[in-house]
Amino acid sequence: MILDFDTLKEEIIDLLDKKRIMVLATSANDRVSARAMSCINKGLDIFFQTDKNFLKFKQLEKNPNVALCVDNVQIEGIAVQKGHILNDENKYFLDLYKEKHYGSYKAYSHLEDNILIKVEPRLITLWKYEGNKSLREFLYVEDNKAVREYYKIIK
């Protein structure tokens, strides 16, 4: 069933605006790892900071395909390096990050090896219920397409 792209997009943005912590999954060389991250969003784009010496960054360099999840939402996307958090072009991140994650901002943003990562979503999946029916809604970001699929029930 086809859905209105903009309606589902706005629903997702509203949900992301309220969330502070997301789980980030990365992989490289047949090793998958996941961790909770202090994130912010600008529209559908997700941002976080990390240290260049950490496993997640080393994996991102080899494989920029990542997944994030929060509550009943899964996001598949591409991680893009945006330089140090304190660079002028990253001011939008710094201001919002300071507001949402002040403790992390104070502890980490001024460290030399910190880098800003932007996740550009490709596919966002929401798990939902409609009465007693289970369903998933898919937002195909690059295609501007939204779809609902109901689970099939054994008869």
Automatic annotation (TrEMBL):
Task: Quote the protein name from its UniProt record.
Answer: Pyridoxamine 5'-phosphate oxidase family protein
Q: Which residues form the Pyridoxamine 5'-phosphate oxidase N-terminal domain?
A: 8-127
One of its Pfam families is PNPOx_N
Cite the source lineage: Bacteria, Bacillati, Bacillota, Clostridia, Halanaerobiales
Question: What SUPFAM superfamilies does the annotation carry?
Answer: FMN-binding split barrel (SSF50475)
Recorded hits in InterPro entries, A to Z, give: Pyridox_Oxase_N, Split_barrel_FMN-bd, Stress-Dev_Protein
Cite the PANTHER family for this sequence: PROTEIN BLI-3 (PTHR34818)
